[in-house]
Design a protein that fits this description.
Length: 140
């Protein structure tokens, strides 16, 4: 029996839930109301990628006692990267993020070449997302 692909569930702190929902919808995520309340909502990108948007004040309920939530505009704990099927798809997602209020190309050293093309954007709360196209021979 073949195993199912693993899923990734990412939880991020957001300062304002409704604008964040609108931002993630604009870049292709779909809200899942089965996992939503007044302080959080699950956003679905694919059958394997889920992002839980959690209001900052509620986010502390999910982290170890004594720790604080970082301000993604001041510190970066993680870089998130999504794959794209083409260089054009990379540019399209970055353009959608920018149109929805994000900031494009926040990292000066993005990659462009024959086998790899990577750009990035920052969401409304400063979380950095990369979008990468890689030639199949590069990955395998």
């Amino acid at each position: 029996m073949a195993s199912k692909p693993q899923k990734i569930f990412i939880s991020i702190s957001v300062s304002a839930l409704e604008p964040s929902i609108a931002f993630y919808k604009a870049i292709g995520f779909t809200p899942n109301p089965k996992f939503a309340d007044s302080t959080s909502i699950m956003m679905v990108l694919s059958e394997t990628i889920y992002v839980m948007l959690i209001a900052s004040e509620r986010f502390t309920d999910f982290i170890p006692a004594g720790r604080t939530t970082s301000d993604a505009r001041k510190t970066t704990e993680v870089l998130l990267c999504l794959s794209a099927d083409s260089k054009e798809a990379v540019d399209d997602l970055v353009a959608k993020a920018t149109a929805a209020g994000g900031k494009a190309d926040v990292v000066a050293k993005d990659v462009e070449g024959d086998s790899m093309y990577i750009r990035g954007f920052e969401d409304l709360d400063g979380h950095v997302w990369k979008v990468a196209w890689m030639a199949e021979e590069t990955i395998m």
